[in-house]
Design a protein that fits this description.
five-stranded parallel β-sheet, 15% strand, 14 strands, 15 helices, 380 residues, alpha/beta
């Protein structure tokens, strides 16, 4: 009797249970607690960010494939895997629209609470991959001037569309990080946001990090709050799930690493796991798999907005925050910071803009085009 292929999977990967069971032996475990003994006889690992796939985990295993249902892969020792002929795959872009939604909501809430006009402001985007590109597009749709910094891309594509870091920091009213976390190579991002970085930022600027916690030097950020920044927004934290409580308390928005946690983004990440596994092991099933149905959001998917008497920014605020009231995630984390992992693991069914249809009354052509650019459907 042929031994079934075995997968060890993080038990928080959504939509996965029941999908591959007819074809393989799949074991679900807490990602942070997966051990070398657990994967000793496994052929594949499906992971998120909490399983460190390194020599200590893999050296005595039969693992041939690691798929992470995330865009980031700093939890995978890629050099070791490649040296051992272990294929590893990430899910680039799977949560880019989710992070776009997160940043759009953060910008509009910031503008409302601080009485700002986004059309008068400049957003600096550091890291212009799948996520950073979507964030830049959203900011441009909101009327912001956008500056882009991405040295690896500038090196390959030419510097014309990019701005060097020092100039970007000096000119940006709001700065948003979307880099991977790297410690080696020509452009390391570990503690990219350090004392020198914050010193070069514009007086009264706002700092956002929804990339990786260690891109930010926590002590440098705390100093900058005293001397330079008017606010900061963090979705990722050094040392998470343990948080610097002072940093959390003073954050304008502070959330438990969920910027990319829309239902849609999770579904795309899980689909990468299933499809890549089937292709790698030659299973002629599920190679185009996607969840058959996604849960509905807790709010109506039809949004009615009367634009009469509203500025375009106010109308956009109503649309975006209907899909994502970002302050609720902040309140939950500030009230119960010890539940960081629990809040991630049982995150509510947030849906992206394209799950919503907007009925506009008295709209301008510009507001309609802006909403379409963000990804909403219009019933006009």
């Amino acid at each position: 009797m042929t031994k079934k292929i075995k997968i060890v999977a993080d038990d928080k990967i959504p939509f996965l249970k029941g999908v591959l069971e007819p074809f393989v032996n799949i074991v679900y475990l807490s990602g942070a607690k997966i051990t070398a003994a657990d994967v000793a006889d496994a052929d594949a690992i499906f992971t998120r960010t909490r399983t460190h796939c390194n020599e200590a985990l893999l050296s005595q295993s039969a693992v041939k494939l690691i798929v992470t249902a995330t865009i980031g892969y700093d939890h995978i020792d890629t050099a070791y895997c490649e040296a051992q002929d272990i294929r590893w795959v990430s899910a680039p872009g799977c949560n880019s629209s989710s992070v776009q939604q997160y940043i759009a909501a953060a910008l509009l809430v910031l503008a409302k609470e601080k009485n700002l006009n986004l059309q008068d402001m400049t957003l600096g985007v550091i890291g212009v991959g799948n996520v950073g590109s979507k964030v830049a597009k959203a900011a441009a749709a909101l009327g912001m001037r956008v500056l882009l910094n991405d040295p690896p891309r500038a090196e390959k594509e030419g510097a014309a569309q990019f701005t060097d870091l020092e100039q970007l920091l000096a000119q940006s009213d709001i700065m948003s990080c979307h880099t991977p976390l790297t410690k080696e190579g020509p452009y390391p991002t570990y503690h990219l946001s350090n004392v020198d970085f914050f010193d070069k930022m514009k007086e009264g600027a706002v700092y956002i990090n929804s990339a990786r916690g260690a891109v930010t030097d926590t002590s440098a950020l705390k100093q900058a709050v005293q001397s330079k920044l008017s606010a900061y927004i963090l979705d990722v934290w050094e040392g998470e799930p343990l948080l610097d409580l002072e940093l959390l308390e003073k954050a304008f928005i502070g959330t438990p690493h969920i910027a990319g946690y829309s239902v849609d983004g999770k579904a795309k990440g899980t689909a990468v796991c299933v499809r890549e596994f089937c292709r790698f092991f030659g299973l002629n099933v599920l190679t185009d798999w996607y969840p058959s149905a996604l849960p509905a959001p807790p709010t109506s998917t039809l949004i009615t907005i009367d634009c009469a008497g509203k500025t375009e920014q106010e109308a956009l605020y109503d649309a975006v925050t209907h899909t994502y009231p970002i302050w609720e995630d902040t309140q939950r984390l500030k009230q119960n910071p010890a539940e960081f992992e629990a809040q991630r693991g049982s995150y509510w069914p947030r849906r992206e803009f394209d799950a919503f249809t907007i009925q506009l009354k008295h709209p301008t052509e510009h507001i309609m085009n802006t909403l379409l650019s963000l990804g909403f459907k219009l019933n006009n």
